[in-house]
Each structure stands twice: as C-alpha cells, then as structure tokens.
Amino acid sequence: MKVTVCELPNGWVESEDSWTAIAETIQAEQSDLVLLPEMSFYRWLAGTAQADPDRWQAAVAAHDGWMARLSEYATPIVVGTRPVLDDGCRRNQGFVWQATSGYRQAHTKYYLPDEEGFWEATWYQRGDGRFDVIDVNGVKIGFLICTELWFNAHARAYAAQGVHILVCPRATPHTSVDTWVTAGRTAAVVAGAFCLSSNFNGPHIGDMAFGGTGWIIEPEAGRVMGLTSEESPILTIDIDLSAAEKAKKTYPRYVPD
C-alpha cells in the first residue's frame, strides 16, 4: 500500500496555484492513502486566546468547500481532521474520505492543550473519548490527533484492535520537532502499527513557526522510514501491512496487560 504524508504552509489553500501544485504532486505519486495536517483547509484557529464563533463557522465552510474537491487528488483514501459544529458544540473531527463512498467521521479529538499558540480547549470542546479503529476496505486505521499521541494507553488499545496504521494529523511548532518524532516512534512500537503524521510548516504567531517534518514510521522497531522537509514536502512510501500484523506477535506487543 502506498501512503503519502506532507508538510503544508499555514493558509496554503488561500492560493489556487498552491492547491493545484500540491494536487498535481499527489496525483503523480499515485498513492493509495494521503494524510493531511490537522484542520488543514483554513488558517490555524487556535493561535489566539479568544475564540471567535464567526471564524469557526468560516473554517467549517472552508473545509466544506475544499473537501468537495478531494477527488482532484486522484487517490482512493484521504485522511485528516476538520472543524465541525456538533449539536452546537465546536469539535475537531477526524475523518476518512474515500473516492468511492465519500466522507466518514472517524474520531473526535479528546485531549486538548491550552497554551500560547495552541488555545484548543478555549476554541472547541473535546470529543466522546472513544478511540476505535475504522476499517477501510480491510485496512484498520486508528487516530491519535496531535496531542493525543502522548497518551500511549490508546496506542496499546489500538494494538488490541488489530490496527495497521496510526494516523497523527498535527499542528506542532519547530521548537519540538525531535520530541514529536520520538513520540511517533514510541506509538508505532506500542501499537505495532505504521505511524503516519503530517504537519504545517512555516510562520505561525510571533516568532513561532510550525515544524513540518511529516513522517512514516514502521511498526516493529519504530524505525523512521522517511521524513518530509521544506525541500521535499510530500513523501510517499510503499508499506507492507502484513508487517503490522506480524509485529503484534513480538515484544512488547504480545505481553499480556
């Protein structure tokens, strides 16, 4: 299975040329699955400490509009997160989009930071706390959205559900890149699954910038198979899902709880 991760500029969809260039690159990759950054179709909302319902609604509308064009990627599966209004509550919802069947809700972000540049608990509400795999044509996908990557009990629980791929769409700063890669490696080992992550890059607020560095990590030993960079912002690798199944039978995954 060919999988693609990326790092994209904040606000990249504000330019039709930028959208077209990225879509054409993804088309050329002929990938089976593309992972986008966290809430990727609007400028990062949680950079300000004051939540603005009008901006949230604008972000919801922007995601509606751009996601209607996902078929332009010419890939069977696109994974990411988006802002939604759920019974009047603002939430960050993970999704799987398929060319054959459209949009499916997958998981709603539960662990929300609240600090400079990432005022997420101020901007929206947590989900229901369920961490269930979503089966996509026999491929079992689990979500750990950004901060959720640090709660390893869920990676362990995903292993018990037979997960093949852990997706970590994120929006994280350049100052902590190495730490995030370490977290991705740990989650891959704990879950016995391929860990995929995509991120924003470039300017954020003040002197803070997003850190890019999307990754693809293998399940047995947490080896980094590849990282994105400013020079190579889109990365595609062919992975063997049977490696995730085999990893479930080796240390430390086989050890009973």
Describe this structure as you would to a colleague.
- The chain is of the alpha/beta class.
- Helices cover 25% and strands 32% of the residues.
- It is built from six helices and 15 strands.
- The protein has helices at residues 16-29, 53-67, 120-123, 152-160, 177-191, 242-247; strands at residues 2-9, 33-35, 77-86, 89-98, 102-108, 114-115, 118-119, 134-136, 139-143, 165-169, 194-205, 208-211, 215-217, 224-227, 234-238.
- The strands form two sheets. Strands 1, 2, 3, 4, 5, 8, 9, 10, 11, 12, 13, 14 and 15 form a 13-stranded mixed sheet that branches. Strands 6-7 form a two-stranded antiparallel ribbon.
- β11 and β12 form a beta hairpin.
- α4 (152-160) packs parallel to α5.
- The radius of gyration is 17 Å and the shape is globular.
- It starts with a strand and ends in a 10-residue tail after the last helix.
Write the SSE topology.
Layout lengths: L1 E8 L6 H14 L3 E3 L17 H15 L9 E10 L2 E10 L3 E7 L5 E2 L2 E2 H4 L10 E3 L2 E5 L8 H9 L4 E5 L7 H15 L2 E12 L2 E4 L3 E3 L6 E4 L6 E5 L3 H6 L10
Parallel strand pairs: 1-2, 1-11, 2-3, 9-10, 10-11
Antiparallel strand pairs: 1-15, 3-4, 4-5, 6-7, 8-9, 11-12, 11-13, 13-14
Helix pairs in contact: 4-5
Can I get a quick summary?
The protein is α/β, with parallel strands linked by helices.
Proportion in helices? 10-25%
Tell me about the largest β-sheet: 13 strands, mixed
The radius of gyration computed from the alpha-carbon positions, rounded to a whole number of angstroms, is 17 Å
Question: What portion of the residues fall into strands of 2 or more residues?
Answer: 25-35%
Question: How much is the average pLDDT?
Answer: 97
What is the number of beta strands? 15
Helix and strand element order: EHEHEEEEEHEEHEHEEEEEH
**Tally the helices: what do you get?**
6
Shape: globular
Give the N-to-C terminal Cα separation. Answer: 31 Å
Uncertain stretches of 5 or more adjacent residues: none
Structural class, please?
Answer: alpha/beta
